[in-house]
Amino acid sequence: MQDTRPKTMTDTALKAEKISVYYGSNLAVKDVFLDIPRNQIVAFIGPSGCGKSTVLRCFNRMNDLIPSARVDGNILFDGENIKRFDPVELRRRVGMVFQKPNPFPKSIYENIAFGARINGYQGDMDELVERSLKGSALWDEVKDKLKESGLGLSGGQQQRLCIARAIAIEPEVILMDEPCSALDPISTLKIEELMHDLKTQYTIVIVTHNMQQASRVSDKTAFYNAQATEAGGKMGYLVEYDDTQVIFSNPREEYTRDYVSGRFG
Question: Is the separation of the CB atoms in 41 and 49 below 8 Å?
Fold first, then answer.
């Protein structure tokens, strides 16, 4: 498989070195090389079943929670192999926002405070809650109803609450798996604007089926594709990874050109 790593990259937050993922005996993703630069937004695009979310989950070892999953190769976080990290500590430093908003069945305040307490936060909790909600552009909408259930918020507000919950535990990286797929266009725009603001403090990796979103929000884009296996399944692989402007205007690979121009997907 071709090594698609960019030739020059500095200040790398995450590095994937020949990552392959198996579910049982089935090879789901093969030989991914990838550098994620610090304080940038990297988008993963590609058709369904090409391994985008599978690779994303490798970065904070979420695949460890799947009994049949096995990850070969190495991922470095701040230069250290993530296999050496305690998984709980790794997931604190590499947070995740899922496709469907999943607030805890608690108050808005407790949604933010709960994770911070679990992780031993000793500072001013009121200040942390306010700072996190401001960081997710939600404070002005909820500051007068912090004792109300997070489940009573709109879908877009719930997703921003989940982002606030993620940043409350002070991660370095935020992984986002299709964070806008269940949201209306106005809420989607708010999340996209929020990502631009957040990248000054965090590194963000987003999986999206929305190519327009990838072109709007990301600094770099990784295009994945899949090929059929003899067993009748799909094996995902990384086709091309480069600056977003290059991927959408002048990609090297024919598969990439066909995908971003809408010829398949």
Answer: no
- What is the average pLDDT across 134-149? 96
Please compute Rg for the chain using Cα positions. 18
CA 54 to chain centre: 11
The Cβ of residue 210 has, within 10 Å, a number of other Cβ atoms equal to 17
Is the Cβ–Cβ distance between 141 and 186 less than 8 Å? no
Instruction: Tell me the per-residue pLDDT of 174-231, one tens digit each, with 9 for 90 and over.
Output: 999 999 998 999 999 999 999 999 999 999 999 999 999 999 999 999 999 999 888 7
> For position 9, what pLDDT does the model report?
41
pTM (predicted TM-score)? 0.91
Tell which phi-psi region holds residue 264, choosing left (phi > 0), alpha (psi between -120 and 50) or beta: beta
Domains of the chain with CATH codes? 12-255 (3.40.50.300)
C-alpha to C-alpha distance for 14 and 35, rounded to whole angstroms: 6
Scanning the structure block, which residue is given the tokens 């909600």?
133
Task: Answer positive or negative: Cα dihedral of 5, 8, 13, 15.
Answer: positive
The C-alpha atoms of residue 113 and residue 121 are separated, in whole angstroms, by 9
